[in-house]
Batch of 2 targets.
Target 1
Amino acid sequence: MLGQDLRSAASAAGHEVLALVRAELDITDPDAVQRQLAQARPEVVINCAAWTDVDGAEGDYPGAVAVNGAGAGNVARAAAAAGAWTLHVSSDYVFDGAKRQPYLESDPVAPLSAYGRSKLEGELAVARAAPGRHTIVRSSWLFGNGGPCFPATILRLAAERDELTVVEDQVGCPTFTGHLAPALVDLAWSAGSAVEGIMHVAGAGACSWYELAREIVARAGLECRVHPGTTEEMARPAPRPAYSVLGTERGHTAPRLPHWRQGLGEFLAAEVPAR
Ligand SMILES: NC(=O)c1ccc[n+]([C@@H]2O[C@H](COP(=O)([O-])OP(=O)(O)OC[C@H]3O[C@@H](n4cnc5c(N)ncnc54)[C@H](OP(=O)(O)O)[C@@H]3O)[C@@H](O)[C@H]2O)c1
């Protein structure tokens, strides 16, 4: 999902782009990654490849961490060897959600889920493999027109059903990949000490999944009632942070994205053009 928007954003910014899917490059194969990057000799490498099945990771942590941990390290190591800057994408799920004010880059991490632990392993692996030559961007609640995502699921379910129940006690920052991608391109190509290390970049504003679902249904003009539910009532295999709003202490070096409502409007304009 993010990878498709990144390819478009980087091309639109005038960069020559080599965008590889898993069938072309498996990041768990260190030799293949090393060969590919030594041959391409890129200026920057942006890693969007990940095991993103949050619930599935609970039953296969070795599988998740092979991609999100060791795989992320393979990419950063090969990028550093090729003289490239690494921009790695990480997640708000490295936090436990106990805070009630926006999480800053220096806040302690304490992932609740196997997915969150695997993403944290990736951050550590990237920092080890490309010291002083990487940016780790933590983002959250991604949605976009290039892949399955929460708004697309709600649009489908709300068209099929009269009523939906959606969790109200998880709050975060929905982030439109069409907004995140150009910001990542700018960051990656301004490589240097100002952008080195961890940076939080997410859609402005915050809401619960319930509020987001209501907004989607209302703006798409669908006749479906949306009810608030609790995490406890709607148990899922992976625990999720109750609060994972991302703030930043990186000043003007951290890009500020538009409000999630604006992102949702752009998403819906592409998904539901005739309404
Ligand atoms: N989605 C969110 O809400 C969210 C929130 C915060 C951060 N993030 C992070 O943002 C990044 C992009 O996420 P996304 O939502 O765009 O995910 P996505 O649509 O699931 O894309 C992940 C891609 O990684 C590929 N991949 C998986 N294993 C691979 C491997 N071993 N080698 C090469 N490619 C592999 C997948 O290929 P297949 O389709 O073949 O499996 C897929 O194309 C990820 O790092 C994710 O952790 C996502």
Note: The chain has a mean pLDDT of 96.
Target 2
Amino acid sequence: MARQYRIDDLVDFAKYPLDQPNSVAYNSAVADARTQLQDDGCAVIKNLLRPTAVRIISQEIVERKSKTHFSTTKMNPYFHSVKNPDYPEHHPVNTFIERSSGFIPGDSWNSSLAIDVLFRSDLLTNFIRDSLETEAIHCYADPLAGLTANILDPGQQFAWHFDTNEFAVTAMIDEADDGGLFQYVPMIRNPDDEAFEKIQHVLDGNHETVKTLELRAGDLQIFRGRHSLHRVTRVPETSKPRHAAIFAYTAEPGVIGRVERTKQLFGRVLPAHEEAERQRVRTDQLID
Ligand SMILES: O=C(O)CCC(=O)C(=O)O
Ligand SMILES: [Fe+2]
């Protein structure tokens, strides 16, 4: 399908010259993002999107809202909903919290849409890569989980969890009037330490280590969600819905999500998921 939008229709290049990586403005934006990411695995790029881009993407999301897969379940931070007798009762693996939000899946979009142009833009990906100080990043190859919109309708929340992909980028499109806040605990675990005690402390409601973001429509958030426990707080019944575009990237190319989690998030799997289960590409041994 023909592309209607160019990346500079969507991102204000006067403010963020993604096409001029040697410019002072580009380098100062990258330096700022790097500092934020080094400090706590999360960076907010304020007003990256033009207001018109926010309006266009909001409409793209609203038009596809009926495709949202809502799966109201109680889940642990690893997206499991069934008790595991190998672990104690009072343990993150056996602590289940409501997740009532939903995703519009990756196969709802097409290349004519602004949301897709943004996700697949090499210029934006380069900026994210430079901010993360990494060699290369790749659009998450999962056909459902790569490009999604996270939907929190009034009354809904997204429970504490870890992501399976190394990095995620969120473009806030429609913020809630109240609530619907992104909260996280920077780098609470690492590949050598599951940090179950620290995680349980947060799940028990102790929030000294919790940070809260003030994301506004048009802001971009770069987040290392594999190691930082995070959630979106409940959107009150009185608020308008919260819509965020979620761009998932991986350090390695060709990563596809697990069958079980894909079913839970999207209610179905595609042949690519079954195939990937057989030939798994993973970069760590964390429980999920
Ligand atoms: O909507 C957000 O801000 C983040 C959602 C999230 O954590 C996720 O999709 O894994
Ligand atoms: Fe997440």
Note: The chain is about 25% helix and 20% strand.
